[in-house]
């Protein structure tokens, strides 16, 4: 994931912004006594996650899903898979595993939420629902040149989305978050339709770090810089998640990317250790098996 990559991470101020004033209000409004946490990578293929799989691994997804409890499914951005493929993925993974698939690029980047996008969405969901209870939260990532001038398309898309399927959205044009009037209109729309506002933590795009939750789900896409600062940044995130937990957050979905993806499992394992220690979760630590498998940390 090259989005927001920088040459010199030491030049970046990685301090997490303060919460938007309405974030805690939203959490308290939707407060839950139960919290589920899903942490994962963006890909499971061996070519990207070099060193993660033991020698002789025959099925990468089957092994990955025994190490992590979720995957940010980016493959669905590039191709609309048939229902049979989703059934295969469902059958290969444990009961507690969840997929968080990205909406296809035809929806977000080609048709750009135009009026004629509905059949493509329907076709996508017709396949994706075969994940059944393993379907976590579908997410929409818009191109960085998709600007608020097309806000009416977002309104129609949000209001038309089937409410039984959780949705999260990511906007990359700076005006969505830095034009106060537009931002407040967007937050209200997402709140009214119970759509999660994705937080992207990337070195080169601090301008879109909004820290505004719009429902009881924190959907975080974290992009490391393949630098030691990646770990202290995760420490800061755990501290923020503790605050959100204390205010009743229900879902934490945290997906770790790296510009060199082979280090993603390392960062994810570190994050899980910190969450288990600081948030009281009991997530499995990847590759921390008792059967002699290689440990990442």
TrEMBL record:
Entries under Gene3D superfamilies matching the protein: Protein of unknown function UPF0759
Transmembrane annotation, as ranges: none
UniProt xrefs under InterPro entries: DUF72, UPF0759_sf
Protein name: DUF72 domain-containing protein
Species this chain originates from: Winogradskyella flava
């Amino acid at each position: 994931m090259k989005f927001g990559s920088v040459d010199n991470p030491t030049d970046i101020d990685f301090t997490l912004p303060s919460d938007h004033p309405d974030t805690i209000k939203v959490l308290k409004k939707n407060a839950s006594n139960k919290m589920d946490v899903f942490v994962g990578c963006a890909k499971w293929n061996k070519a990207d996650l070099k060193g993660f799989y033991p020698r002789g691994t025959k099925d990468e997804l089957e092994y990955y899903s025994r190490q992590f409890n979720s995957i940010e499914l980016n493959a669905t951005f590039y191709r609309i898979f048939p229902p049979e493929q989703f059934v295969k993925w469902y059958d290969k993974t444990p009961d507690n595993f969840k997929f968080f698939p990205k909406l296809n690029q035809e929806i977000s980047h080609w048709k750009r939420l135009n009026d004629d996008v509905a059949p493509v969405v329907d076709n996508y969901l017709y396949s994706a629902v075969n994940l059944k209870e393993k379907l976590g939260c579908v997410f929409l990532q818009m191109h960085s040149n998709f600007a608020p001038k097309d806000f009416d398309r977002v309104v129609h898309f949000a209001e038309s989305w089937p409410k039984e399927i959780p949705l999260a959205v990511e906007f990359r044009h700076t005006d969505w978050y830095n034009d106060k009037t537009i931002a407040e209109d967007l937050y209200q729309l997402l709140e009214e339709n119970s759509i999660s506002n994705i937080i992207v933590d990337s070195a080169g795009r601090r301008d879109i770090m909004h820290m505004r939750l719009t429902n009881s789900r924190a959907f975080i896409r974290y992009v490391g810089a393949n630098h030691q600062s990646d770990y202290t940044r995760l420490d800061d995130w755990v501290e923020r998640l503790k605050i959100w937990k204390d205010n009743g957050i229900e879902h934490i979905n945290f997906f770790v990317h790296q510009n060199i993806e082979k280090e993603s499992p390392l960062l994810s394992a570190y994050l899980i250790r910190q969450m288990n220690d600081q948030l009281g979760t009991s997530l499995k630590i990847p590759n921390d098996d008792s059967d002699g498998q290689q440990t990442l940390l």
